[in-house]
Each structure stands twice: as structure tokens, then as C-alpha cells.
């Protein structure tokens, strides 16, 4: 029978830091005590404390700003987190991830079409307007705008957990998404597909929004499958 791993001092400090944030009523963006104050409060050395802080920073629970201090991170209340240690995806694993997006994102587009109004729609239009300015080879900026569109659509569906799932999936294979943009090599077509999704959401047509999002993601997966089956040069 294997021995149960005992919690380390860093484990205990991580939990105490989270407890400090929760019981103190701190919200994302709030400033926390300094490293020196925390070391004194928890009666530990600064290096030991910093190890716990690095763990929390890796999950987005805190943000360490050089020359400014320690702040509560925007991910402190998240339920689903992207794996910060995830390596580049290859082959079948990437296709499975795209399959997951095909299952999740189309229904969220339909939900967004039912719920989105006013400022929500203006945000989606602004994001695609930004994307349109980067169609001539500014792939880093175009990629960011495209992913913002997918994240915003998921957020407007109104289910925070599913929004976090989509956000995590996009974060995990961000590098691959940038490659897709280059391999697909038809930025205008990709942009036009996003625009047809937006039109359906603006019209409040849930069925069309779902169908168009699915068609778009299947298109992306098809490109990846073709790349994977290409013989090496």
C-alpha cells in the first residue's frame, strides 16, 4: 500500500493565502499585503512564501506586478482553468480538442442569439471590425481578435462555466490556432464566416447561429485533418 503524500509547507501556505483572500472579501484587482507582511503573518521565510505565490500566480489566482505589489487575479473565482503546463498539441489530441469545440460552441452561439442585446451586440461588432483591419498579414493581431470573438460569443450565452470551458480550450491550443490561420491561408473567408455567425446572433436567429458556428468549426477541423494527412516534404 503506497504512502499518502503529505502536504508540504508550500501546500499549506497556498491554502492559507486563498483563505486570506476569501475571508478578507477581496475581489479581482484588489491589492494584497506585501511579501514582507505576508512572511511575517504566516511566520515563514520569503523564499518559501514566494514558492506558494508562484503556484497561485500560475493559476491566475493572484497577479504579481513588479514594483507595484501582489493583487488578486481575475481567475480567482473561475471553476475551469487552462492547464499552465500544457505542451503543444499534436495529431489526434488536437482533433479531439476541436471536436470538443464543435460540440460546445454551436449551442452557445444559439444561446447568445437568444440573449444578446444592445451593448452585447455592439461588442461583437467591434471585435469583428477590429479583425477586419488585420486581414493583410497581421496574423498575431487577427488571431487575437478572432479568439476574442469566440470568447465573447461564449460569454454572451450566459453560462459562466461553459464560457470558462471555451476560454480554456482556446488558451490551451492558442499556438495551433495561429498555425491554422496560416495554413487555412484564406483570412477573408474565415472572417466572412465569423460575420455570418454575427449576423445570425444580431437577428436573434438561434438556429442559424448554431448552424453557422458548427459549419465554421468543422471547416477549421477539416483544414487540420488535411494538414495531418499531408506527406512530409
Automatic annotation (TrEMBL):
Q: Which residues form the HTH gntR-type domain?
A: 7-75
**Signal peptide residues on this chain, from the entry's feature table:** none
CDD domains hit by this protein: WHTH_GntR
**Tagged with keyword Transcription:** yes
Q: Which GO terms describe its molecular function?
A: DNA binding; DNA-binding transcription factor activity
Pfam name, any one: GntR
Q: Which UniProt keywords apply?
A: DNA-binding, Pyruvate, Transcription, Transcription regulation
Q: In the UniProt record, does the keyword DNA-binding occur? A: yes
Under which name does UniProt file this protein?
GntR family transcriptional repressor for pyruvate dehydrogenase complex
Which source organism?
Nonomuraea muscovyensis
